[in-house]
Every structure is written in C-alpha cells, then in structure tokens.
Design brief:
The chain is built from 15 helices and two strands. The protein has 330 residues and is mainly α. It has a single domain, classed as ABC transporter involved in vitamin B12 uptake, BtuC. The longest helix is centred in the N-terminal third of the chain and has 35 residues.
Length: 330
C-alpha cells in the first residue's frame, strides 16, 4: 500500500463525498463548481451547495479523521499497545470537557470566533493524558493493562462531568447532545481555518518524530541507550498527540475508534516503521472518516445519523476482534 495510492484514494473519496447526498451531483460538476469558485464566478445553487455546504464538511471530515488516526498511531507506539487510541484512553473525553467548558462559559459563537474552544480542548486533552499515565504508573513503570483501565475510568468520569454541564446549558442541550455523539453538521470554512493550522503543526511534528517513535518500540531502556532522552520525548510526543486530538474534538465532538482501527489496519499492511506508518495513517484516517460521514448522511436520508454512531458501530466489533486475537493488554 503506497502513499500515492492512499492519496489518490483520499482524493476520490472526497469527490464522492461532495457529489453524493440527498441531491446528487455529477463528479464533473463538482470539479467545475470548485473551479468557478476559485475564479470568482460561482453563481448557481449547485455552486452554493458544493462550495459552501458539502466541500467544507468533507474537507473537515478528512482533517478530523487524519488527526484522530495520527494521534492513535502515536499512542500505540508510545505505549506499545495496539488498543491505545484517544477515545479509549479518555483523551477525547478530556478534550470534549475542555471544549464544553469554553462553550458554556463564553457562548458558542464567541468561543469559536476567538479560538477558545480549541485551546480549552487542548488543555483538557493534555491534563487528561497526564492524569491517566500517572494513575497507570507504578514505581516509574507504565503498566499497559492499568493504562486502559485508567483511561476507561477517567473517560466515564469526564463524560459524567460533561453531562452535568448540560444542566447549566439547557437551551443548548440538543446541540450539545448531538455534538457529543460526534458530528460534522456544523462544518464551515471558518471551522477549517480554525483547526487547519493545528492539524498541520501536529502532523508535521509527528512525522519528524518518526525515527524516535521507532526507537520507542524497542522499550524505554534500549531507546535511552541509543541516545534518546525518553522522558523529554514522551512529554513532547504526548503534547503532539493531544494537539491532534483537540483539533478533532473541538469541531466534531467525540468520534471514537478511528484512532484505533486505522493505524492498526495500516500497520498490518505496511509494517511498524513510522516513517511510512504515520503518513499512511493520516491519509487512511481521512479516507475512513469521509466515507463514514458519507454513510451517515445517506443511509437514512434525509435524516442524518451522527458520524460518531457509525464509527462506534464499526469500532466496537473491531476492538473485540483485537481482544480475541490476543492483542489486548499483557
């Protein structure tokens, strides 16, 4: 599986995501509408549908999926555990609670306008990851079984706190519930402008850390003997993964299992070398979430299913399959 093939697949699924829906548009018309918008000549209803509604949603789905898959690949390498991902470790819930605090405290429009939601989501993700790793550590060693248990426990606790916040935001309850299920219905160009830089920075830092992530697969002691400052690198790469998770959660809510399924599937095909695995995971995550969102929009159209439900329906059985294969925590 080459990166070029994945890039072409992502381009194709993006075109399909824009073309298909309650109103179907020919692929050629999609490209023509985008070209007219780029040249300032967009003037039809089709152009508005494609450029102002569907295209930002599909591109946002690609960025969110890529962010979650990249974060999952980092966590799986760092903890040497194929079951690690932002959702299971509770990092998504931490980012979600941070975003909810910003929304409730300042109001949705203001918070999004000034970027408080992504900042709060990043803070929530970092603090949650720090708490989970602290709870799972014993005498300086990180136990992988305890890591997953701590992640699940913290995730439930944070979800309860998020639900408690809804009591103080009853007028926004329907929107908040839909957001917690994971959805891209509010996608817009300002959303893309908000999370795009976070994704670019996080993805770039992750890719340039590929060699060090390969060393981490050998274990902390051997990585240290090979010249890696293990403790400092862990802090750095956890911050990178938290940034990617926060970028996804801030605009799409809680979408689970993309960070679990995609890196694991890619690893089975191309191997554990992160110089190829990370870029492939970013591309694969984009493909997976754009496809899942297309299903969510069309399976019972005109009713829209939250995309988080679609990913959970796929990810739950995948998680069980990993356990049955014996790839759970040792």
């Amino acid at each position: 599986m080459s990166l070029a093939a994945l890039a072409c697949s992502l381009a194709l699924v993006i075109v399909a995501g824009v073309a298909l829906g309650a109103v179907r548009v020919a692929p050629g018309d999609v490209l023509a509408s985008v070209w007219r918008a780029m040249t300032g000549r967009a003037d039809s209803l089709y152009d508005a549908l494609i450029v102002d509604v569907r295209l930002p949603r599909v591109l946002l789905a690609a960025i969110v999926g890529a962010s979650l898959a990249g974060a999952g690949a980092i966590y799986q390498a760092l903890f040497r555990n194929p079951l690690a991902d932002p959702y299971i470790l509770g990092v998504s819930s931490g980012a979600g609670l941070g975003a909810m605090l910003a929304l409730v405290a300042t109001g949705g429009a203001t918070a999004l306008r000034y970027g408080m939601v992504p900042v709060a989501a990043f803070a929530g993700a970092v603090l949650t990851m720090a708490l989970v790793t602290r709870l799972a550590s014993w005498r300086g060693r990180l136990d992988t079984a305890s890591l997953l248990l701590a992640g699940v426990a913290i995730s439930y606790t944070l979800a309860a706190l998020t639900s408690f916040l809804m009591v103080f935001a009853r007028e926004q309850m329907a929107t908040v519930v839909f957001w917690m299920m994971g959805g891209l219905g509010s996608a817009s160009w300002p959303y893309l402008a908000m999370v795009g830089p976070m994704f670019v920075v996080g993805a770039a830092l992750a890719v340039i850390s590929a060699r060090e992530l390969n060393l981490m697969l050998l274990g902390d002691e051997r990585a240290g003997h090979l010249g890696l400052d293990v403790d400092r690198f862990k802090l750095f790469v956890l911050a990178v993964a938290s940034l990617l998770t926060a970028a996804a959660v801030a605009v799409a809510g809680l979408i689970g299992f993309i960070g679990l399924m995609v890196p694991h599937a890619i690893r089975l095909v191309i191997g554990p070398d992160h110089r190829a695995l990370l870029p492939a995971s970013f591309l694969g995550g984009g493909i997976a979430l754009v496809a899942a969102d297309l299903v969510a929009r069309t399976v019972i159209a005109p009713v829209e299913v939250p995309v988080g439900i679609v990913t959970a329906l796929l990810g739950g059985p995948f998680f069980v399959w990993l356990l049955v294969r014996g790839e759970g925590p040792r």
